[in-house]
Write a structure and sequence with these properties.
CATH class of the largest domain: Alpha Beta
Number of helices: 10
Largest sheet: 6 strands, parallel
Mean pLDDT: 95
Radius of gyration: 19 Å
Structural class: alpha/beta
């Protein structure tokens, strides 16, 4: 029977560790603070923000909510970012995307100080991931995958890892992070042939699915005894949440598998808080 790689135990352990580090920072006169920047009232943004606020409270991290009208101009938003960059009391930033269409998202993101970029939205952060130089932070979802590996003691060295999806949010950064643990990676995407796609899935020791397509990874694309990490969060025709992996087909084959929901998504806000704590700790080093 496949082991369920549940996200809640991972998030709880991370929150406990982060809260202890927060207390140590407070003893030095530093209160870790996260700024959340949101334009408009997108329901998915509101849902994630609510989860982040609850996690911050459990961790002891202060949160500054910056809520702007959806019609906010690009220059007005850039002024907000400039203010955040200059505010030493703010250690990390979460800015919800996508931004409204009238805003040049790339320009706005690049204005953010990579040292305060908690979710890998700047090129500086992504350079840090690819160069492993400690600059910036990976996207929280990609980091959540690695936290699950660590919590459940899943060894990556020497393993064959197939990643389905090549986005900058998950596929590419998690590929670099997995390769940094000495795994051999195969990346499949929309231009991969159907034959190669299925073969890469079957031959892997570990599968990471991040395509954003409901139940696309079925039994024909999987092998026996694999560790399966399903990052996808989709809504099926019946309105139910499901992953990129067909869970019912994959479970009998897998050695271990993350469910959807209650898997990777449960860990992301804990990762966000961990990044804020790390940024606050680094701020002390800069001041010394």
């Amino acid at each position: 029977m496949a082991e369920m790689l549940l996200g809640l135990p991972v998030a709880k352990a991370m929150t406990q560790s982060s809260s202890e580090r927060v207390e140590a920072l407070k003893a030095k006169g530093i209160l870790p603070m996260l700024a959340i920047v949101r334009l408009g009232q997108n329901p998915s943004d509101l849902s994630y923000e609510n989860g982040a606020l609850k996690r911050a409270e459990k961790t002891g991290i202060a949160v500054k909510q910056i809520v702007l009208p959806e019609g906010t101009s690009q220059e007005e938003l850039m002024d907000v970012i400039r203010g955040i960059n200059a505010d030493d009391s703010i250690h990390g930033v979460l800015m919800f995307r996508p931004l409204p269409k009238h805003i040049d998202e790339k320009t706005v993101c690049e204005m953010l100080d990579p040292a305060k970029d908690m979710d890998g939205i700047t090129s500086g952060s992504m350079a840090g991931v690819f160069m492993e130089n400690g600059m910036g932070y990976p996207p929280c979802t990609a980091s959540a995958v690695m936290e699950i590996f660590d919590h459940y003691g899943i060894e990556l060295k020497g393993k064959k890892v197939t990643i389905f999806g090549r986005s900058l949010v998950i596929g590419k950064p998690v590929a670099m992070m997995v390769m940094g643990r000495h795994a051999t990676i195969t990346m499949c995407h929309s231009r991969t042939t159907a034959e190669d796609f299925a073969q890469a899935g079957r031959e892997a020791d570990i599968v990471i699915a991040a395509l954003g397509r409901a139940r696309m990874i079925d039994a024909e694309k999987l092998g026996q005894g694999q560790v399966i990490i399903d990052v996808g969060i989709n809504v099926d025709e019946e309105g139910n949440l499901c992953g990129d992996v067909d869970f019912h087909q994959a479970k009998p084959l897998a050695k271990a598998i993350t469910p959807v929901p209650k898997g990777v998504g449960s860990v992301t806000t804990a990762v966000l808080m961990k990044h804020v704590v790390e940024a606050a700790e680094k701020s002390i080093q800069v001041q010394m």
